[in-house]
Amino acid sequence: MAGASVLISLFCFTPCYALKFEDSFRQEVSRFIESLDDDQRALCLHDLADKRRWEMRYTGGKRSGVMIRDLDENQRSLMVKVLSMVLSPHGWKMANAVAFQDAGEGGDALGKYWITCFGDPRNGDFAFRLAEHHLTVVHLELADDVANEFGPILLGANPATLWKEDELALLNAWPLIGNEKALIEGERGIATEAMNEGEGIDFTVLSGEAQKAIQAAWARRLSIFTEEIQQRVNQLHVQRGGWTGSRVAYYNEVPTKRCIDGGRWDFKCGLPGMLWAFESSRGHIHMSLWVSAEGEE
């Protein structure tokens, strides 16, 4: 627990705004990579094309990379500086909450998580990832300063006591939709799978109130990120078709109550090559957000 407390107290880093965000982010990830010894660096650095970068797995267990518990105090503080450029204070708090929930009493909650860099930030394109049980955060930066993909971001909770505000935002949206075609009854909406073509209803046919409710749920999901990251995700959202190209669907059963109270429903809002989802039909929570490269599904 002491190690986790150190992480939380260090989450006050402010990036150098004399540099644009891409340069600052690359600089901080490079500093972290340079702080590793040769063995750690070999574990942490992987090819950008490594398919494990897009692995979407909620279950715990071994991942590629270097374990946080094997980092010294300086390396760990540099890692937190990187994460502070991606996760907002709210997002960092929730990341720790997920880790604490999985770790149980005592110990270093985030110690069992893995840090991986796909590609080398010192000389090319790269993606920086934190991953293990119910928590995967990947941020991609490209050498030409154009990001056309993002994620995957996987979040979860078991028991389903976390992410209450995100859950309530989607519950509150349902009564405003008033369209039975928005519910795909008896079929689960797996959070890591893209929406099937034609599922759900067009966002544009929703009432003004329903649209605002879905957009509020989207804003709530993005609140785990810093303003810089939110801007980039919203830009990608617009590039993929924005709200006019989005489809909305609920799955499995009418969403009337939270998962912790027995609700077993799922939600997806998708665009070509982009998805954000909430899944509770398994009896606990899985959430996803990802944007694939243009032209890929």
Relative strand content: 15-25%
SSE topology string: HHHEEHHEEEEHEEHHEEEE
**N→C terminal distance:** 40 Å
**What is the tally of beta strands?**
12
Question: What number of domains?
Answer: 2
Q: Please state the overall shape, judged from the principal axes of the Cα atoms.
A: globular
Report on this structure.
- Helices cover 34% and strands 21% of the residues.
- It has 297 residues and is of the alpha+beta class.
- The chain has helices spanning 2-10, 21-35, 38-44, 73-84, 89-103, 164-177, 208-222, 227-239; strands at residues 45-46, 66-67, 114-118, 126-132, 135-141, 150-157, 183-185, 201-202, 247-252, 266-271, 274-279, 285-291.
- Strands 1, 2, 3, 4, 5, 6, 7, 8, 9, 10, 11 and 12 form a twelve-stranded mixed beta sheet that branches.
Outline the fold blueprint.
Blueprint lengths: L1 H9 L10 H15 L2 H7 E2 L19 E2 L5 H12 L4 H15 L10 E5 L7 E7 L2 E7 L8 E8 L6 H14 L5 E3 L15 E2 L5 H15 L4 H13 L7 E6 L13 E6 L2 E6 L5 E7 L6
Parallel strand pairs: 1-3, 7-9
Antiparallel strand pairs: 2-3, 3-4, 4-5, 5-6, 6-12, 8-9, 9-10, 10-11, 11-12
Features:
alpha+beta, 297 residues, disordered N terminus, 21% strand, 12-stranded mixed sheet, 2 domains, globular
Entry summary:
This protein is α+β, with helices and mostly antiparallel strands. The protein has helices spanning about 1-10, 20-35, 40-45, 75-85, 90-105, 165-175, 210-220, 225-240; strands spanning about 45, 65, 115-120, 125-130, 135-140, 150-155, 185, 200, 245-250, 265-270, 275-280, 285-290. The chain has two domains: about 1-145, no CATH class; about 165-290, no CATH class.
